[in-house]
Recover the amino acids of this structure.
């Protein structure tokens, strides 16, 4: 009923406007000649009177015929117009009902594209529906990925503790160190999830203060040096003095994530960690010797739970959150995290942080 009411209202309105326009034209026509008669009366020889201007029976019949024909034309055009207007609106309403019922794949049809406003409304609705569907899919993917990442350490912890309870395993320092490493892995996963989630909601807490960024970079490299050296990497460090208003702890966390990513996935060899200033601001870069990222995977490298191996194998460890944490911290500094292939065939991961002219002058003078 609601659909027909709007179309009926449009048709009735157009019809009424058409009748009113005809009557006004007719009345205006008679009024015009009445005024002309008063101001410039015809010569007496024409034997005309003012009564001759008043419509007679044939005139009223002609007026009625014109009104009927006008109404028919108005109704035809009104019905065509309402069908072009109502069709996309009905499609919008149907799509909204389906989305409210849980069908996020519902889309509205734009109908007649020449109606720009209606088409734009439908396009905006479809964009909203697509974003809702993407968000729902991402949520399902996140839940599955989180469950996948939590399952392995929890299974190990439960098995070992159950074995100790059943006297299958003898309590020892090595056993407890193994259990502690699993707990630490869970703690890192929870912290990474917290950072990424807070960043997505715009609530990542940052503590900006004047920081010796060179010192933070060196501390991160020194912390990772033993593990990188044991894995066969040779570290080459190239830094410069840089005092910036930033969260040094967070940036050190981001660099640690890049170094850990290199330790897990890069080919052992030279690992270059550098700082430079260019048009993008201050850039911290980590360059390895390979194997690099595939062109298909590179655009998604910083997505949460993204992994180059489709099977999500844990052969190399890691949760797939490290690079997303790097991006979250970089964006919290109004900067960006990016990847580009190196000329040597390896990977270059960069954190670019915008800096002011004052900060740059201060850094150069230190």
């Amino acid at each position: 009923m609601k659909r027909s009411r709007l179309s009926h209202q449009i048709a009735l309105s157009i019809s009424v406007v058409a009748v009113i326009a005809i009557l006004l034209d007719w009345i205006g026509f008679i009024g015009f000649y009445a005024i002309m008669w008063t101001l410039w009366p015809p010569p007496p020889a024409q034997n005309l009177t003012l009564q001759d201007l008043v419509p007679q029976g044939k005139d009223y019949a002609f007026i009625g015929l014109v009104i009927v024909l006008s109404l028919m034309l108005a109704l035809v055009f009104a019905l065509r117009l309402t069908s072009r207007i109502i069709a996309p609106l009905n499609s919008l309403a149907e799509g909204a009902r389906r989305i409210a019922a849980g069908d996020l794949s519902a889309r509205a049809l734009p109908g007649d594209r020449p109606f720009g406003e209606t088409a734009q409304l439908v396009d905006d609705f479809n964009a909203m529906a697509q974003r809702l569907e993407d968000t729902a899919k991402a949520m399902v993917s996140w839940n599955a990925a989180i469950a996948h990442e939590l399952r392995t350490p929890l299974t190990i912890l439960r098995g070992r503790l159950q074995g100790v309870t059943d006297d299958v395993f003898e309590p020892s320092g090595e056993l407890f160190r193994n259990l502690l490493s699993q707990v630490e892995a869970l703690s890192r996963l929870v912290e990474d999830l917290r950072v990424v989630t807070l960043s997505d909601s715009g609530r990542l807490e940052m503590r900006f203060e004047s920081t010796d960024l060179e010192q933070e970079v060196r501390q991160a490299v020194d912390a990772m040096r033993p593990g990188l050296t044991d894995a066969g990497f040779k570290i080459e460090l190239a830094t410069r003095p840089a005092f910036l208003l930033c969260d040094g702890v967070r940036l050190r966390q981001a660099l640690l994530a890049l170094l850990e990513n290199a330790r897990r996935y890069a080919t052992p060899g030279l690992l270059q960690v550098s700082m430079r200033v260019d048009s993008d601001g201050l850039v911290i870069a980590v360059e390895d010797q390979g194997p690099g990222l595939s062109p298909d995977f590179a655009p998604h490298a910083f997505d949460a739970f993204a992994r180059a191996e489709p099977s999500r194998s844990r052969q190399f460890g890691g949760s797939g959150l490290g690079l997303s944490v790097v991006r979250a911290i970089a964006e919290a500094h109004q900067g960006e995290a990016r990847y580009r292939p190196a000329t040597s065939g390896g990977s270059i991961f960069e954190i670019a942080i915008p800096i002011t002219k004052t900060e740059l002058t201060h850094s150069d003078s230190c």
Q: What stands out?
A: The mean pLDDT is 78.
